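User: Earlier you gave me the apo prediction for this protein. Now I'd like the version with pyridoxal-5'-phosphate bound, so I can compare the two side by side. Same sequence as before, with the ligand SMILES added.
Assistant: Got it. Here's the input I'm using:
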Amino acid sequence: MNLFDVYPLNNIEIVKASGSAVWDADGQEYLDLYGGHAVISIGHTHPHYVKRLTDQLNKVGFYSNSVLIPLQAQLAEKLGQVSGKTDFQLFLCNSGAEANENALKLASFYNGRKKVIAFKGAFHGRTSLAVAATDNPKIVAPVNETDNIVFLPHNDEAALENAFAAYGNEITAVIIEGIQGVGGIREASVSFLQKIRSLCDQYNAVYIADSVQCGYGRTGQFYSHDYAGVDADVYTMAKGMGNGFPVAGISIAPKFKPWHGMLGTTFGGNHLACAAALAVLEIIEQDNLMKNAGQIGAYLINELKQIEGINEVRGRGLMIGIDLPEDKSGVKKNLLFKYKIFTGEAKPNVIRLLPALNLTKDQADQFLNDFKTALKG
Ligand SMILES: Cc1ncc(COP(=O)(O)O)c(C=O)c1O
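And here is the structure of the complex with pyridoxal-5'-phosphate:
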Protein backbone atom coordinates (compact mmCIF):
# COMPACT_ATOMS: atom_id res chain seq x y z
CA MET A 1 0.00 0.00 0.00
CA ASN A 2 1.22 3.52 -0.80
CA LEU A 3 0.57 6.71 1.08
CA PHE A 4 -2.03 9.00 -0.45
CA ASP A 5 0.32 11.61 -1.84
CA VAL A 6 -1.15 14.96 -0.78
CA TYR A 7 1.86 16.66 0.84
CA PRO A 8 4.85 18.22 -0.95
CA LEU A 9 7.73 16.98 1.20
CA ASN A 10 11.20 18.21 2.11
CA ASN A 11 13.63 15.33 1.85
CA ILE A 12 14.47 15.45 5.58
CA GLU A 13 13.63 12.95 8.29
CA ILE A 14 13.60 14.38 11.80
CA VAL A 15 14.69 11.82 14.36
CA LYS A 16 15.40 13.90 17.46
CA ALA A 17 14.27 17.24 18.86
CA SER A 18 14.84 19.43 21.90
CA GLY A 19 13.58 22.97 22.52
CA SER A 20 13.93 24.80 19.21
CA ALA A 21 16.49 22.36 17.81
CA VAL A 22 15.78 19.31 15.65
CA TRP A 23 18.17 16.75 14.16
CA ASP A 24 17.88 14.75 10.96
CA ALA A 25 18.79 11.11 10.40
CA ASP A 26 22.38 12.11 9.50
CA GLY A 27 22.83 13.94 12.80
CA GLN A 28 22.54 17.39 11.21
CA GLU A 29 21.08 19.98 13.60
CA TYR A 30 18.48 22.56 12.50
CA LEU A 31 17.01 25.63 14.18
CA ASP A 32 13.24 25.19 14.19
CA LEU A 33 11.43 28.48 13.59
CA TYR A 34 8.43 26.69 12.11
CA GLY A 35 7.45 24.57 15.11
CA GLY A 36 5.84 21.99 12.84
CA HIS A 37 3.35 24.67 11.75
CA ALA A 38 2.90 26.66 14.98
CA VAL A 39 2.31 23.49 16.96
CA ILE A 40 5.41 23.38 19.15
CA SER A 41 4.57 25.96 21.80
CA ILE A 42 6.76 25.00 24.78
CA GLY A 43 9.62 23.51 22.77
CA HIS A 44 10.21 19.96 21.60
CA THR A 45 10.46 17.19 24.22
CA HIS A 46 10.11 19.58 27.16
CA PRO A 47 11.00 17.45 30.24
CA HIS A 48 7.85 18.41 32.18
CA TYR A 49 5.69 17.58 29.15
CA VAL A 50 7.41 14.25 28.56
CA LYS A 51 7.08 13.30 32.24
CA ARG A 52 3.42 14.31 32.50
CA LEU A 53 2.51 12.33 29.38
CA THR A 54 4.61 9.32 30.38
CA ASP A 55 3.16 9.28 33.91
CA GLN A 56 -0.36 9.53 32.50
CA LEU A 57 0.24 6.77 29.95
CA ASN A 58 1.38 4.52 32.75
CA LYS A 59 -1.91 5.14 34.59
CA VAL A 60 -4.60 5.35 31.91
CA GLY A 61 -4.19 6.69 28.37
CA PHE A 62 -7.76 6.76 27.15
CA TYR A 63 -11.29 6.34 28.23
CA SER A 64 -14.33 7.83 26.53
CA ASN A 65 -16.51 10.74 27.58
CA SER A 66 -18.91 8.34 29.27
CA VAL A 67 -17.02 8.43 32.59
CA LEU A 68 -15.62 11.07 34.93
CA ILE A 69 -12.33 12.50 33.68
CA PRO A 70 -11.26 15.01 36.36
CA LEU A 71 -8.29 16.07 34.20
CA GLN A 72 -10.81 17.83 31.94
CA ALA A 73 -12.07 20.03 34.76
CA GLN A 74 -8.46 20.73 35.82
CA LEU A 75 -7.67 21.75 32.25
CA ALA A 76 -10.74 23.99 32.06
CA GLU A 77 -9.75 25.64 35.34
CA LYS A 78 -6.18 26.23 34.22
CA LEU A 79 -7.17 27.45 30.76
CA GLY A 80 -9.64 29.89 32.29
CA GLN A 81 -6.92 31.18 34.58
CA VAL A 82 -4.12 31.48 31.99
CA SER A 83 -6.39 32.90 29.26
CA GLY A 84 -8.13 35.25 31.68
CA LYS A 85 -11.61 34.00 30.62
CA THR A 86 -12.45 32.40 33.96
CA ASP A 87 -16.23 32.34 33.42
CA PHE A 88 -16.03 30.64 29.98
CA GLN A 89 -16.78 26.93 29.41
CA LEU A 90 -14.56 24.40 27.65
CA PHE A 91 -15.47 21.82 25.02
CA LEU A 92 -12.60 19.57 23.98
CA CYS A 93 -12.05 18.10 20.53
CA ASN A 94 -9.13 17.04 18.34
CA SER A 95 -8.19 19.50 15.59
CA GLY A 96 -8.51 23.10 14.52
CA ALA A 97 -11.06 22.35 11.83
CA GLU A 98 -13.16 20.40 14.31
CA ALA A 99 -12.98 23.28 16.78
CA ASN A 100 -14.24 25.74 14.15
CA GLU A 101 -16.89 23.29 12.96
CA ASN A 102 -18.20 22.99 16.53
CA ALA A 103 -18.05 26.74 17.12
CA LEU A 104 -20.14 27.41 14.00
CA LYS A 105 -22.57 24.68 14.96
CA LEU A 106 -22.89 26.07 18.47
CA ALA A 107 -23.61 29.55 17.07
CA SER A 108 -26.35 28.17 14.84
CA PHE A 109 -27.90 26.20 17.70
CA TYR A 110 -27.78 29.37 19.79
CA ASN A 111 -29.58 31.81 17.50
CA GLY A 112 -31.23 29.38 15.06
CA ARG A 113 -29.71 31.09 12.02
CA LYS A 114 -27.60 29.98 9.05
CA LYS A 115 -25.50 32.75 7.50
CA VAL A 116 -21.83 32.97 8.42
CA ILE A 117 -19.62 35.97 7.70
CA ALA A 118 -16.02 35.05 6.88
CA PHE A 119 -13.24 37.11 5.33
CA LYS A 120 -11.06 37.20 2.25
CA GLY A 121 -7.79 35.39 2.94
CA ALA A 122 -9.27 33.29 5.76
CA PHE A 123 -8.29 29.71 6.53
CA HIS A 124 -10.46 27.82 9.03
CA GLY A 125 -9.76 24.16 8.21
CA ARG A 126 -10.85 21.40 5.86
CA THR A 127 -14.02 19.89 7.34
CA SER A 128 -17.30 20.72 5.69
CA LEU A 129 -18.32 24.08 7.15
CA ALA A 130 -14.79 25.13 8.13
CA VAL A 131 -13.60 24.66 4.56
CA ALA A 132 -16.65 26.45 3.20
CA ALA A 133 -15.61 29.41 5.38
CA THR A 134 -12.06 29.16 4.00
CA ASP A 135 -11.17 31.47 1.15
CA ASN A 136 -9.66 28.85 -1.16
CA PRO A 137 -12.05 27.36 -3.74
CA LYS A 138 -9.46 24.74 -4.72
CA ILE A 139 -9.92 22.82 -1.46
CA VAL A 140 -13.71 23.18 -1.33
CA ALA A 141 -15.29 20.02 -2.77
CA PRO A 142 -18.67 20.38 -4.47
CA VAL A 143 -20.33 18.72 -1.48
CA ASN A 144 -18.89 21.41 0.83
CA GLU A 145 -20.30 24.29 -1.20
CA THR A 146 -22.99 26.29 0.54
CA ASP A 147 -24.76 29.62 0.13
CA ASN A 148 -24.60 30.09 3.88
CA ILE A 149 -21.10 31.59 3.86
CA VAL A 150 -20.57 35.20 2.84
CA PHE A 151 -17.00 36.43 2.28
CA LEU A 152 -16.31 40.09 2.99
CA PRO A 153 -13.10 42.05 2.50
CA HIS A 154 -10.77 41.83 5.51
CA ASN A 155 -10.67 44.84 7.86
CA ASP A 156 -13.41 46.63 5.90
CA GLU A 157 -15.77 48.09 8.50
CA ALA A 158 -18.13 49.65 5.97
CA ALA A 159 -18.63 46.33 4.15
CA LEU A 160 -19.37 44.63 7.47
CA GLU A 161 -21.86 47.30 8.49
CA ASN A 162 -23.58 47.06 5.10
CA ALA A 163 -23.86 43.27 5.40
CA PHE A 164 -25.46 43.51 8.84
CA ALA A 165 -27.78 46.30 7.69
CA ALA A 166 -28.88 44.17 4.72
CA TYR A 167 -29.44 40.77 6.40
CA GLY A 168 -28.26 41.07 10.02
CA ASN A 169 -31.13 38.98 11.36
CA GLU A 170 -30.01 36.00 9.26
CA ILE A 171 -26.38 36.09 10.43
CA THR A 172 -25.51 33.35 12.90
CA ALA A 173 -21.80 34.14 13.30
CA VAL A 174 -18.78 36.13 12.24
CA ILE A 175 -15.60 34.05 12.22
CA ILE A 176 -12.19 35.70 12.08
CA GLU A 177 -8.56 34.89 12.78
CA GLY A 178 -6.82 37.42 15.04
CA ILE A 179 -3.94 37.21 12.59
CA GLN A 180 -4.48 35.37 9.32
CA GLY A 181 -1.81 32.68 9.11
CA VAL A 182 -2.24 30.88 5.80
CA GLY A 183 -3.40 34.24 4.40
CA GLY A 184 0.11 35.64 4.88
CA ILE A 185 0.24 37.03 8.47
CA ARG A 186 -2.39 39.74 8.23
CA GLU A 187 -3.69 41.14 11.47
CA ALA A 188 -7.33 42.03 12.07
CA SER A 189 -7.32 45.67 13.18
CA VAL A 190 -8.39 46.61 16.70
CA SER A 191 -11.24 48.74 15.39
CA PHE A 192 -12.43 45.95 13.07
CA LEU A 193 -12.64 43.45 15.95
CA GLN A 194 -14.44 46.05 18.06
CA LYS A 195 -16.89 46.61 15.20
CA ILE A 196 -17.52 42.86 14.96
CA ARG A 197 -18.22 42.80 18.70
CA SER A 198 -20.69 45.67 18.59
CA LEU A 199 -22.54 44.43 15.48
CA CYS A 200 -22.78 40.91 16.91
CA ASP A 201 -24.22 42.38 20.12
CA GLN A 202 -26.68 44.51 18.18
CA TYR A 203 -27.92 41.62 15.99
CA ASN A 204 -27.49 38.72 18.44
CA ALA A 205 -24.89 37.11 16.16
CA VAL A 206 -21.95 35.11 17.55
CA TYR A 207 -18.38 36.43 17.36
CA ILE A 208 -16.06 33.45 16.81
CA ALA A 209 -12.35 34.11 17.30
CA ASP A 210 -10.32 31.55 15.38
CA SER A 211 -7.24 31.33 17.59
CA VAL A 212 -6.04 28.02 16.17
CA GLN A 213 -2.78 29.50 14.89
CA CYS A 214 -2.53 32.97 16.48
CA GLY A 215 -3.65 31.91 19.96
CA TYR A 216 -2.13 30.13 22.93
CA GLY A 217 0.18 32.99 23.88
CA ARG A 218 1.98 33.22 20.55
CA THR A 219 1.51 36.98 20.20
CA GLY A 220 2.20 37.89 23.82
CA GLN A 221 -1.47 37.83 24.82
CA PHE A 222 -3.23 34.50 25.25
CA TYR A 223 -5.58 35.18 22.34
CA SER A 224 -4.33 37.71 19.78
CA HIS A 225 -7.93 38.97 19.54
CA ASP A 226 -7.43 40.25 23.11
CA TYR A 227 -5.48 43.23 21.73
CA ALA A 228 -8.86 44.69 20.72
CA GLY A 229 -9.92 44.83 24.37
CA VAL A 230 -13.25 43.07 23.74
CA ASP A 231 -14.23 39.46 24.37
CA ALA A 232 -15.30 37.11 21.61
CA ASP A 233 -18.22 34.72 22.28
CA VAL A 234 -16.26 31.63 21.29
CA TYR A 235 -12.50 31.09 20.94
CA THR A 236 -11.29 28.13 18.92
CA MET A 237 -7.84 26.69 19.63
CA ALA A 238 -5.68 23.75 18.59
CA LYS A 239 -2.06 23.80 17.34
CA GLY A 240 -0.06 25.05 20.36
CA MET A 241 -2.52 23.57 22.82
CA GLY A 242 -0.91 20.12 23.01
CA ASN A 243 2.66 20.88 21.81
CA GLY A 244 2.19 18.15 19.23
CA PHE A 245 -0.36 15.93 20.95
CA PRO A 246 -3.58 16.27 18.92
CA VAL A 247 -5.90 18.23 21.17
CA ALA A 248 -8.19 21.15 20.41
CA GLY A 249 -10.94 23.04 22.15
CA ILE A 250 -13.45 25.81 22.13
CA SER A 251 -13.77 28.31 24.95
CA ILE A 252 -17.42 29.29 25.21
CA ALA A 253 -18.98 32.39 26.82
CA PRO A 254 -21.36 31.83 29.76
CA LYS A 255 -24.46 32.82 27.77
CA PHE A 256 -24.33 29.52 25.83
CA LYS A 257 -26.20 26.77 27.67
CA PRO A 258 -25.26 23.16 26.91
CA TRP A 259 -27.61 20.20 26.63
CA HIS A 260 -26.64 16.55 26.59
CA GLY A 261 -25.69 15.44 23.10
CA MET A 262 -25.41 18.99 21.73
CA LEU A 263 -21.72 18.46 20.83
CA GLY A 264 -19.59 15.37 21.13
CA THR A 265 -16.56 13.38 20.03
CA THR A 266 -14.97 10.02 20.82
CA PHE A 267 -11.38 11.13 21.34
CA GLY A 268 -11.83 14.71 22.54
CA GLY A 269 -10.64 15.35 26.09
CA ASN A 270 -9.09 11.94 26.66
CA HIS A 271 -6.64 11.44 29.51
CA LEU A 272 -3.48 11.79 27.44
CA ALA A 273 -4.76 14.86 25.58
CA CYS A 274 -5.61 16.57 28.87
CA ALA A 275 -2.23 15.69 30.36
CA ALA A 276 -0.50 17.19 27.31
CA ALA A 277 -2.63 20.35 27.39
CA LEU A 278 -2.12 20.78 31.14
CA ALA A 279 1.63 20.37 30.80
CA VAL A 280 1.65 23.09 28.11
CA LEU A 281 -0.30 25.57 30.24
CA GLU A 282 1.84 24.82 33.30
CA ILE A 283 5.00 25.63 31.34
CA ILE A 284 3.50 28.71 29.68
CA GLU A 285 2.65 30.01 33.14
CA GLN A 286 5.72 28.86 35.05
CA ASP A 287 8.26 30.04 32.46
CA ASN A 288 6.41 33.25 31.58
CA LEU A 289 6.29 32.22 27.94
CA MET A 290 3.70 34.76 26.79
CA LYS A 291 5.99 37.53 27.97
CA ASN A 292 8.96 35.92 26.21
CA ALA A 293 6.96 35.52 22.99
CA GLY A 294 6.00 39.20 23.14
CA GLN A 295 9.54 40.39 23.84
CA ILE A 296 11.54 38.17 21.48
CA GLY A 297 8.86 38.70 18.83
CA ALA A 298 9.06 42.49 19.15
CA TYR A 299 12.85 42.27 18.95
CA LEU A 300 12.72 40.13 15.80
CA ILE A 301 10.12 42.33 14.12
CA ASN A 302 12.07 45.48 14.94
CA GLU A 303 15.36 44.03 13.66
CA LEU A 304 13.72 42.64 10.51
CA LYS A 305 12.24 46.04 9.74
CA GLN A 306 15.77 47.51 9.57
CA ILE A 307 16.82 45.07 6.83
CA GLU A 308 16.75 46.37 3.30
CA GLY A 309 15.28 44.37 0.44
CA ILE A 310 12.12 43.16 2.24
CA ASN A 311 8.68 44.28 1.01
CA GLU A 312 7.06 44.22 4.44
CA VAL A 313 7.37 42.67 7.90
CA ARG A 314 4.01 41.82 9.47
CA GLY A 315 2.76 40.16 12.63
CA ARG A 316 2.96 40.24 16.38
CA GLY A 317 4.97 38.33 18.93
CA LEU A 318 6.23 35.05 17.52
CA MET A 319 3.86 35.04 14.56
CA ILE A 320 5.84 36.92 11.94
CA GLY A 321 5.53 37.25 8.18
CA ILE A 322 8.46 38.43 6.07
CA ASP A 323 7.06 39.46 2.71
CA LEU A 324 9.81 39.12 0.11
CA PRO A 325 10.07 40.40 -3.44
CA GLU A 326 9.56 37.93 -6.27
CA ASP A 327 13.29 37.63 -7.04
CA LYS A 328 13.95 36.44 -3.46
CA SER A 329 11.68 33.41 -3.74
CA GLY A 330 14.65 31.06 -3.15
CA VAL A 331 15.48 32.41 0.33
CA LYS A 332 13.23 30.02 2.23
CA LYS A 333 14.77 26.95 0.60
CA ASN A 334 18.27 28.32 1.21
CA LEU A 335 17.47 28.93 4.86
CA LEU A 336 16.54 25.28 5.19
CA PHE A 337 19.16 23.54 3.10
CA LYS A 338 22.12 25.89 3.44
CA TYR A 339 21.61 27.54 6.84
CA LYS A 340 19.68 24.65 8.41
CA ILE A 341 16.76 26.75 9.61
CA PHE A 342 13.16 25.61 9.33
CA THR A 343 10.65 28.36 8.54
CA GLY A 344 7.08 28.34 7.26
CA GLU A 345 5.70 30.02 4.17
CA ALA A 346 2.59 31.67 2.81
CA LYS A 347 1.73 32.38 -0.79
CA PRO A 348 3.01 34.02 -2.84
CA ASN A 349 6.31 34.86 -1.18
CA VAL A 350 6.03 35.23 2.57
CA ILE A 351 8.35 33.53 5.07
CA ARG A 352 6.39 32.68 8.19
CA LEU A 353 8.11 32.43 11.58
CA LEU A 354 6.13 30.34 14.06
CA PRO A 355 8.71 29.14 16.61
CA ALA A 356 8.28 27.81 20.13
CA LEU A 357 7.36 30.52 22.63
CA ASN A 358 10.60 30.00 24.55
CA LEU A 359 12.82 30.96 21.63
CA THR A 360 15.91 32.68 23.05
CA LYS A 361 17.50 35.95 21.96
CA ASP A 362 20.59 34.01 20.82
CA GLN A 363 18.44 31.85 18.58
CA ALA A 364 16.69 34.96 17.24
CA ASP A 365 20.12 36.50 16.52
CA GLN A 366 21.31 33.35 14.80
CA PHE A 367 18.30 33.57 12.51
CA LEU A 368 18.77 37.29 11.85
CA ASN A 369 22.43 36.83 10.89
CA ASP A 370 21.77 33.89 8.59
CA PHE A 371 18.70 35.53 7.10
CA LYS A 372 20.65 38.68 6.23
CA THR A 373 23.30 36.58 4.46
CA ALA A 374 20.67 34.44 2.71
CA LEU A 375 18.88 37.56 1.50
CA LYS A 376 22.08 38.86 -0.12
CA GLY A 377 22.97 35.54 -1.74
C1 LIG B 1 -6.39 29.71 11.61
C2 LIG B 1 -6.55 28.23 11.41
N1 LIG B 1 -7.75 27.67 11.67
C3 LIG B 1 -7.95 26.36 11.53
C4 LIG B 1 -6.95 25.51 11.09
C5 LIG B 1 -7.21 24.04 10.93
O1 LIG B 1 -6.56 23.34 11.90
P1 LIG B 1 -6.34 21.74 11.74
O2 LIG B 1 -5.35 21.55 10.64
O3 LIG B 1 -5.85 21.30 13.09
O4 LIG B 1 -7.67 21.15 11.40
C6 LIG B 1 -5.69 26.06 10.81
C7 LIG B 1 -4.58 25.19 10.33
O5 LIG B 1 -3.61 25.61 9.76
C8 LIG B 1 -5.48 27.45 10.96
O6 LIG B 1 -4.30 28.02 10.69
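For your comparison, keep in mind: The pocket of pyridoxal-5'-phosphate is lined by residues 95-97, 100, 123-125, 177, 181-182, 210, 212-213, 238 (CB under 6 Å).
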